[in-house]
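To: structure subgroup
Subject: Chain for Friday's discussion

All,

I'm putting the inputs and outputs inline so they're searchable in the archive.
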Amino acid sequence: MNGSTADVVVIGGGIVGSSIAFRLAGKGLSVILLEKGRVGEEASGRNSGGVRQQDRYWAELPMAMEAITLWADMKDELDCDVGYRRVGNIHYAHSRETLERLRGVVEREIKGGLEVQMLSPEETRRLTPSLSERIELHGSKYCPSDGTANPLLVVKAICRAARRKGVRIHEHTPVRQLTTHNGRVAAAVTEDGAYEGAIFVIAAGPWTKRLCNMVGFDFPTKVEKRSLMVTEALPPMITPFVESDKLYYRQALEGNIHVGGSITASPIEGDQTRVEFKSFIEVGRWLPAFVPATRNVKLIRAFSGIRESSPDGVPTLDRAPGFENFFIASGFSGGFCLGPIVGKLMAEWIAEGKSSLDLSLFGWSRFEDCSERQLP
């Protein structure tokens, strides 16, 4: 094979695409990975770093639980400490309505085999003593085996390991066109030339829709911009990843607190990386209200990124309609945790014809109306 031909061409260098490429190379396939910018610097590097099993769509739960085993082995497998720690994830209930909703979720998750529990207000405050006494609290939902990792390190480490296995990674190589022949994708055309493969995998997050449009069908997805703020390094005060109705936050190993949430979400308008001033105002209001010890601390940086999701909040892991050799792995709402296991499962399917976990619930059939709509 020449430098522009491989068994599999993966488009998208986030945690999903890089994990797929890494696992395919481990199965002996030649792989090209195309990334329009730099690997790991879109949503996969611009998130809160939560490695979360709880509060997921029920079909995702087995994948998330299996993903934790891969995260636990990641330091040794990648020969890099990506900051993964099992620090737990706690979801506050600030109203009786939220408490009842969380109780319903925990029953389903326990039946699915997840170690998760409801905590009383007193138990919650003992676990998170940094929480202000002034915050109304009716209890919480807690998963001790959830954790966090450093998003800035993970994809870079996966790509370094993938290169060691022979994956050819081309950064700053946006795909301008997908060519087809006899019901198959034949090549991904870039400014540098055409990359040909027997199999194509699209794991391009928000840009999956545009790539699908190139070959005549739509990919239903919605996007929004999320912003995160980072404080100066502080003494240890927060152990689990905290989620609430207003915001979520975690304290990194270096001591910085990363904070974001619904208060920092906004439509995509103009520069997708620009942090809206209102986000600073809201974080400045709510973080000290939750954690009084953060009053008067400095925010040292902030960043924004696009978060994509499908209309039903469930990713699509399937062949594209009408194409035998064109796979899609996109539409995630919280794909950071799932990326490594999706890489493993998609590689199994592509290389061996069957994945070790059932992926039928993530199929294209729920979007049949989109596959019938031919686009120019």
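Points worth raising on Friday:
The first strand starts at residue 5 and ends at 11.
The chain has two domains: 5-49+152-220+312-371, 86-146+222-309.

D.
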